[in-house]
Amino acid sequence: MNTDSNVTSDPVDRLTSNLAGRSAWIITDGKAGMVVQARGVADALGLNCEMKTVTPRGFSKYLAPWGTISSSERFGQPDSAFAPPWPAVAIATGRASIPYIRALKMAAGAACYTVVLQDPKSGPKTADLIWVPQHDTLRGPNIITTPTSPHSFSATRMASLRKTIPPGIERLPGPRVTIIIGGKNSAYKFTEADDARLEHALRSIAKLGVSFMITTSRRTHQRLLNAVDKATSSSPRILWTGDGPNPYASFLAHADALVVTADSVNMTGEACATGRPVHVFMPSGGSAKFTRFHDALRAYGATRELPDEVAQLATWDYQPLDSARLIAQQIADRWQRRAMSQNEKN
To answer: What pTM does this model have?
Structure first.
């Protein structure tokens, strides 16, 4: 295995089931984005999961990921939240989870295969396997990378979603364009000029006779929402801003094309699970990591930058990206190799 394990092959047809049905712990602080990533990998492996939500307090909270677990949690004791029997696999993600996965690795030894999603910041020995997105720089013999983050939108799930179209979406004439709107973060500014530029681009798309399925995020500022609203108000559309059931999965499945703002790795990666054209709006700002991420997706053929004026809705094809299965394949293969090595020693 190359020490820079860029996981790019499609493992769907060869994903083994040697871990299917085995026990697993998913350790996070409960943030939805973290749970989705870990659950996507666990589901691809067919694991029987138990969710472990950690809420460290006091010094333990502030020292994570480098500190230890408070003795009051009685880690490993029969009546604690983390007690034997140890799971076959444990998947942790997020700063607060790292002391727990380190403690589990030490307590369970080879009985539990430990996995960390995202750079734990505490070194490669934190777990048996560490996944980081390809645009991160952490590398090592037990480090694997993929172009996008793991998610729950497998090919099987997408096919299932496409079998049934919700009535509201069915009433929208094609082509249907899904717009996924993020907002300001530490990298992207979303200036007033940026918002106006997105509004102009969306107006030009509306003139092509499309319908829209629009969803916002918690970071979407009002000025940006107003710009998107004005640009699409004369077209058939569904605009979801948080009221009622979340139609996000159906918006992905039934899109003929997608527009996504560049500020979210997760949103862009999930859009690339559709196999449909993904147009990325680039606001002011950015960072080296985001540049590497978006450059890789354009090179793969999944995305193109959204122009300021869209004269024709372009179409292109690519193999949908499902990093959860790619990561799952690596876990299954490495777990199997370790199991065989242990059997030989015995």
So the answer is: 0.87
